[in-house]
Design brief:
The chain is α/β, with parallel strands linked by helices and 226 residues long. The chain has one domain (2-201): TIM Barrel. Helices cover 55% and strands 18% of the residues. It is built from 11 helices and 8 strands. It has helices at 10-17, 29-39, 44-55, 68-81, 94-105, 119-128, 137-142, 147-161, 175-184, 193-200, 203-221; strands at 2-6, 22-26, 59-62, 86-91, 111-116, 132-136, 166-170, 188-191. An 8-stranded parallel barrel has the order 1-2-3-4-5-6-7-8, surrounded by 8 helices. α1 links the parallel β1 and β2 (22-26). α6 (119-128) runs parallel beside α8 and α8 runs parallel beside α9. Bound molecules: erythose-4-phosphate (E4P). Erythose-4-phosphate binds at residues 6, 26, 28, 30, 114, 134, 136, 138-139, 170-171, 190. Erythose-4-phosphate binds next to β6 and α7.
């Protein structure tokens, strides 16, 4: 079980990678557009390369084209930026499956099948050879369905068939979604820096540390500890 970070904010990647808990990074066009609207003009290649340099772990970059031929060309371009760490996020569709099959089995380029909302889609992505199968828990819940069976059925399918895909659960809205995803069988959960920071916090932990330190300092001030 591992955690990825879902962001294109390099400062956050640099800071949080120091915690030693992040095994990869996921990005998507919406995250890129939202980040650009905060920080001015964003150069996608420079931004992705800064994340790769800061993390030195797998980084998913998502395709924007929708036809298989153009998608393969676009994938080759992103992969050429860094052949060791960049993998290609392929939006789920029939063309997407063709692209996953070609990239994984003919071009030795790792893929991340994305925007997956159902077990049927997840099993097709795994059979096509995707390295990562990204199930969007929050968006499944937005439609009124429970993402847990989608995750657990996919985990069972991958393991019973001896497939090599890893399930990434994304679209995480609350810290309990992380617990639920791992309990259902996710191999990886990708979360925003904001969710990662919320995972740190517990008022009882903070109170306890303060209680220990206050008592120690007060005893030392009284000369009881040298
Ligand atoms: C995961 O790879 C996606 O980038 C992301 O988690 C999507 O989340 P959203 O539903 O908040 O857009």
């Amino acid at each position: 079980m591992s955690m990825f970070i879902d962001t294109v904010d390099v400062n956050e990647v640099e800071e949080i990678s120091g915690w030693g808990v992040v095994s990869g990074c996921t990005t998507n066009p919406l995250i890129v557009a939202n980040n650009a609207s905060i920080g001015g003009k964003l150069d996608l290649k420079k931004r992705v390369m800064s994340i790769v340099d800061a993390l030195k772990k797998p980084v998913s970059v998502e395709l924007l084209s929708e036809k298989a031929g153009e998608m393969v060309e676009e994938a080759r371009k992103y992969h050429s930026w860094n052949r060791e760490y960049i993998n290609i996020k392929v939006p789920f569709s029939a063309d997407g499956l063709k692209v996953i099959n070609v990239l994984e089995r003919k071009e030795n380029i790792r893929t991340n099948a994305t925007c997956i909302m159902s077990f049927n889609q997840a099993l097709l992505a795994a059979l096509a050879g995707a390295t990562y199968v990204s199930i969007f828990a929050g968006r499944i819940r937005d439609m009124g369905y429970d993402p847990a069976p989608v995750i657990s059925d996919t985990a069972e399918f991958i393991s019973s068939r001896g497939l090599s895909s890893s399930i990434i659960v994304g679209s995480v809205r609350h810290i309990m979604d992380v617990n639920d995803a791992f309990k259902a069988g996710a191999h990886i959960v990708t979360v925003t820096p904001d969710i990662l920071r919320k995972m740190l916090r517990n008022p009882r932990t903070e109170e306890t540390i303060k209680e220990f330190n206050d008592k120690f300092h007060s005893a030392r001030e009284k000369g009881m500890i040298s």
